Amino acid sequence: MLLIVLGLTDAAAVDVGQAVPACAIASPANNEKADFRAARGQVVYVDFWASWCGPCAKSFPFMNRLHAGLADKGLQIVAVNVDENSADAERFLNSQPATFKVAWDGESECAKLFDVQAMPSTYLIDRKGVVRYVHLGFRESEAVQLEEQVKQLLNESP
């Protein structure tokens, strides 16, 4: 069902060691574009999520904490919603507010470029624009490891 919802192609998934795909998507709050390639010099935490995803609801408090503690050190979090109906995403965000950037990819253009395979899917991108870690799903038991990977990338020189 996930493949139908996302409309994925047979393209190879973005994997560790590859440059972040070029895609720019709008933020519903201010219509500002989120462009992952333009974020060079920062560590970017890209998280694809959907309103119907239970683990996604658990990941938002974690991302809020991560953003609060590390944004001033160069971390940019972009949560990319793939719901076809933006009202579904708005309802989700009313119950799980985000302190970080949220973007909407209702046509799944970025999701196709990343070849997203699960909800949520997280891509950690280093300061040079290279995907360094990929996490499929979210489990609270793995949050410490995820945070350590983010800190490792933040400690690397650009």
From TrEMBL:
Residue ranges occupied by any Thioredoxin domain in the UniProt entry: 14-155
A Pfam family assignment: Redoxin
Gene3D superfamilies: Glutaredoxin (3.40.30.10)
Protein name per Swiss-Prot or TrEMBL: TlpA family protein disulfide reductase
Organism lineage: Bacteria, Pseudomonadati, Pseudomonadota, Gammaproteobacteria, Methylococcales
